[in-house]
Fold:
Amino acid sequence: MSSDYDVVLLETVKTHRARLQAAFLFGELSERRATTDNMRRFLAGVILAAVACAACVGTSFVIDLLAQKAAADAEKTSMSAPLVPGSAL
Structure:
């Protein structure tokens, strides 16, 4: 019968140590609420999504700009190419 009390005591001490360690590492319980954690995750997700969207828009803009420049260069070179006499268009 005494071994049951010992097991209970050891489990209680283990639980208390885990709670004290968590409080020491992560702060008070009010600071460790799930609401603040979820709000931080939500804000981090929004910021990450905004950065990803900005990167996609920037990449699309640069690709479109390069394509327009290539088309303008191709048009310029095709217009400035001398026509060979006797060739049909």
The two ends are 106 Å apart (CA to CA). Residues 6 and 12 are 10 Å apart (CA to CA).
